[in-house]
Description:
By secondary structure, chain A is mainly alpha-helical. Chain A is 72% helix and 0% strand. Chain A has helices spanning 2-19, 23-44, 55-58, 64-93, 97-108, 115-126, 131-138, 141-152, 171-194, 199-207, 212-223, 225-241, 244-249, 257-265, 272-296. Chain B has a domain at 55-227: MetI-like fold, CATH 1.10.3720. By secondary structure, chain B is mainly α. In chain B, α4 crosses α6 (133-158) and α6 (133-158) packs across α8. Chains A and B meet through α1, α2, α4, α5 and α6 of A and α1, α3, α4, α5 and α6 of B.
Amino acid sequence: MSSAVNESLSALSSRHRKQAFAYPYVLWMALFVVIPIVLVAVYAFTSVGGGFTLSNFYNMPEYTAVFGRSLWLAFVATVVCLIVGYPVALAISRTNPRTQRILMLMLMLPMWINFLLRTYAWMSLLENTGLINRALGALGVFDLINSIGLARSASPSQYVPIDHFQLINTGGAVVLGMVYNYLPFMILPIHSVIIKIDHSVIEAAQDLGASRGIVFRKVIFPLSISGVISGITMVFVPSVSTFVISKLLGGGTNMLLGDLIEMQFLGSAYNPHLGSAISLIMMAIVIICMGVMNKFGEGEEQAVVM
Amino acid sequence: MKKRPFGGSFLTALTFIFLYLPIIVLIVFSFNSTKSRTVWSGFTLDWYRELFSDSTFLSSLEITLLVSVLASFIAAVIGTFAAIGFFNMKKNWRSPLLAVNNIPVINADIITGVSLSLLFVSAGAVLGFDLGFGTLLIAHISFNIPYVILSVMPKLYQLDRNLFEAAQDLGCTWFQTIYKVIIPEIMPGIINGLLIAFTMSVDDFVISYFTAGSSVQTMSMTIYSMTRRRISPEINAISTLLFAVVLVLLIIVNIREARQEKAAEKKEKLLKGN
């Protein structure tokens, strides 16, 4: 009797001792995760002098255009990734295991190359004298457009022939950069959820007379919704906060929230208080998006570890 | 569902072309004899030679390797112990702590970077230090630990509870139980976490950019300043080398995995045969 009590006591204390293994990291998190975020909040609500102020937020309407552009471009990129990524994830999941493994590796390979390099790759393709414009020129696209333009123009002497399309330094180029960099983040979680769907459920639906469209709409898609949700957050969050893609592919004219924050901390317009206020709003946007997303699904974030 | 819709395969093929074409163009032009990124004018290895005599690049490569190795090992140690600790906690303590642990994973990189830089700058003003290798290393350890924990926790849940009791019944102290039983059992999770942490560190640009200060440069930061300042085929050469390294590593890992699977299958067959 007493030995049993002793044993359970020692089990309890060993549990306590093992618990203590986490204490160094708890301290670490307090120092390097919690305090930094509290600091962002403190900076956001103080002035350069140190007093409490809301003026950092009063200036926000100046940046409405930047907020709007960031949200819009990230939204478009996320939608494109979903429209392209879902069918690709589905198609990959239907190949045999060996092909599937190779395809997934091929999907991850570009992700392991530094994303600055991947973005830079598009710079040389999209330039005015880049490969795409040269290819279009070689195909005679610009000659065709110029001859039509010249024929239609009211004053042919003033017609300016074109020799390239403006591809780089546009909003479209920024979206392209986001889709290129983050598309695998959409495909991976959706694929990992689809392959876990019990095949007998699909067969049951077919046996009961469901057409392929109905099987997809009523069985496969609802069961894959948690993958879709992780995919959407994994594309939207980095897209809405990027400053590199907009700098490299958007030129100076497509400033995003990330650029605005970067400017306040490391750029010409040094003002960490304003930067913190914008960061706080960005955090709120991310939290709201994730909250809305989690309403749709069970909200288990498991796709983070691939 | 054996019938494969043609549209899906077509879209998949297009997606892979889309993913690889820019990289292939980069690689091809790393061997171009002029600086042009669009006109081919002959084969050369000059850009590789130039890259390996570029002291800025070489020192930044060194910094990246050093910080990635140190950060991923330290994160693996702290993260493994933290995961064991969390695992043994009551749920009402574990859940909020795991939620805080997830913050750096979910949060945008720029916010992690900015918030850490605020901490380092204000602490540095009081304690008298500047941003540099130390702050860079702390930042990397911080964003690496959550990945270690996320890959070790599932392994702990898969552990057979009887294992602890068996070890303790056989006279292991709680300390021996951890070193001789638990750690070896969760080793695959630790290694997996370590590898994820290492690749995250090598790949990181945004957080390093905000926490390294002006005296230290990682490889990503060097690449960034190269893309901002000048057109240089050195960038193409870096891409080619990185692509080759990653490809070789992936092939090695994959062959090893395939072999292990085959060995496991063989073993199973033998066992069934008996």
